[in-house]
Amino acid sequence: MTTIGWALAARSATERRAVVCEAVFALLAEAGYDRMTMDAVAARAHVSKATLYRTWPDKPQLVAEALAYHFKDTWIPADTGSLRGDLLAVMNVACEASASVHGGVVAGVMTAAARNPALASTLREAIYESKHVIHETVVRRAVDRGEVRADTDPHLLHEVLHAMVLSRRLELGGPLDERFAEHVVDDVLLPVLTRDRT
Fold it and tell me: Cα dist. 152→51, 164, 195 in Å?
């Protein structure tokens, strides 16, 4: 057995999955979903195709796990002391992520997800559902400060922010910069969250 072969054999199942998921994400960034192949993943991760197919029978399942692995951590913003400050912090991080390689991978997978319900479900969980705690935290702080009503729905913040960033990334093509973040916060999010609903 070669040196690489011994090293691979010594890996735990968890380590092998991590290596494969990293290889998938790198290939998605380089080639896109449609041009990424199981053969290329096996070569990049230094695993046999048989090993790959035993764990992931097809490409959508493999990509779904790679997305779940890559986006598993959720950042919680520091308390800035104001709703506007918290919203700007969240917007800036969302814009940076969307403009990065991560955003490019997500954008590329979205087309495939429209044709594959399981992939779509994983994509939604990875980039939306698991991140909802961020928006719940921001709204809870604002309620505690008396900046918004107690019945303010964090889902409203999440939906509007997500839609604005995604639209900018996929359709409008403008810069996801500080000016855009301030526009969304001052002209959209704050008016929506603080409007009088009586």
Answer: 49, 19, 10
Residue among 105, 103, 75 at smallest CA distance from 90: 75
- Residue range of the domain that includes 186: 83-194
Question: Per-residue pLDDT tens for 89-99?
Answer: 999 999 998 88
> Does 185 have pLDDT greater than 60?
yes
* Beta carbons within 8 Å of 168's beta carbon, 6+ residues apart: 98, 174, 176, 180
| Number of structural domains in the chain | 2
- Name residues whose C-beta falls within 8 Å of residue 120's C-beta, 6 or more positions apart in sequence: 113, 114
128 and 49 both lie in a single domain: no
Same domain, 125 and 179: yes
Pick the last residue of a domain from 70, 99, 129: 70
